[in-house]
Amino acid sequence: MPRPANFFRTLSGVPVHYDRSSEPGLGYGTRGQTWRFHCTTAFQTKLRRCFQELWAVCPLGPANLILSAGTYVDKPGSHGLGRAFDLDGILWNGKTFITLSYPHDTRFYLAIEAVFRKHFGTVLNYNYDPAHRDHLHVDDLSPVGYNATHRSRVLFLQAALTHLFNHPVMIDGITGPQTDGAARDLVIALGLAQFADVNTSTKLHTLLDNDWLMLMDECVAAGFANIGPILQTPLDLLGAIYAVLEQELGSSAARKPIESAVTTFANHSDSEAFLDQFRV
Ligand SMILES: [Zn+2]
Q1: Which stretches of 48-143 are assigned E, i.e. beta strand?
Q2: Cα(31) to centroid of ligand 1, in Å?
Q3: Cα(274) to centroid of ligand 1, in Å?
Q4: pLDDT beneath 50, residues of the chain
Q5: How far, in Å, is the centroid of ligand 1 from the Cα of 67?
Q6: Burial level of 32, CB count in 10 A (0-12/13-18/19+)?
Q7: Which of 28, 60, 163, 168 has the fewest Cβ atoms within 10 Å of its own Cβ atom?
């Protein structure tokens, strides 16, 4: 399909920047640059409604900036149809959300993903495959809801059970007695069902699909609970750097010199004096 003539530069009142330029200072993790995001008008409407809802339900309200890896791309699949969007991050005052931060910002990530899952059938997240660790892909080629044979939806349910509702399960994308058992306990605890409504896998999967929007609302509420008005001080961000180094470098030889460079920076008397303001 040729590129749709329609494009957007903002969504629900918030500028959207492209942060995948190879030019210095404009790549992933920066504020990126203004961009024409081409997609169909119908898809743009869905995106706008999705972000409108996100601003309404997130305790931080509307963000300052949305960061995206793009919409239309001349290739097969949903991007080539102008019906896909890749989210890299969202910036609020006092809070930087970057999709790569899933390992140490899990609950916030899952709350945002739950909002997306109310508006888009296909959502590919951090756990889906290595290519989706640095962005959330959404498209509308499949219907919104639950499907126990869709790996991406099962992965989300398992992550939500584990990290939002204190029902830890194996996050492997495969439906089984463990996932179903935890999901059954959850829907009963949330008052969405009585045991007799969900006493077989088939009934449970049908209920999860039918009540998907309500379940997503519960995920949003749980994920955004207790985040407070200002979430990250520079001290928190320093802690996040160490968490990322551990996550990404593990026992690699590069970890020690990088960690010690960060520590040297943090321990400099001027840095320390600055960071001291944020210690409680
Ligand atoms: Zn994509």
Answers
A1: 65-70, 84-92, 95-98, 122-124, 136-139
A2: 19
A3: 40
A4: none
A5: 13
A6: buried
A7: 168
The pTM of this model reads: 0.85
Q: How many CB atoms lie within 10 A of CB 280?
A: 4
Q: Which amino acid is at 270?
A: D
Provide the pLDDT for residue 241: 87
Are the C-beta atoms of residues 122 and 138 closer than 8 Å to each other?
yes
The alpha carbon of 123 and the centre of ligand 1 are apart by a number of angstroms equal to 9
User: What does the H/E/C string look like for 191-227?
Assistant: CCCCHHHHCCHHHHHHHHHHCHHHHHHHHHHHHHCCC
E strand residue ranges, 103-184: 122-124, 136-139
Q: How far is the CA of 148 from the centre of ligand 1 (A)?
A: 22
Nearest by Cα to 215 from 110, 132, 101: 110
Predicted pLDDT of residue 242:
86
Spatial contact of 6 and 44, defined as CB atoms under 8 Å apart: yes
Convert the pLDDT of each residue in 169-194 to its tens digit. Answer: 999 999 999 999 999 999 999 999 99
Residues less than 5 Å from ion ligand 1, measured at CB = 84, 86, 137
What are the tens digits of pLDDT across the range 21-60? 999 999 998 999 999 999 999 999 999 999 999 999 999 9
Instruction: Copy the structure tokens of residue 270.
Output: 């001027």
What was the pLDDT predicted at 228? 59
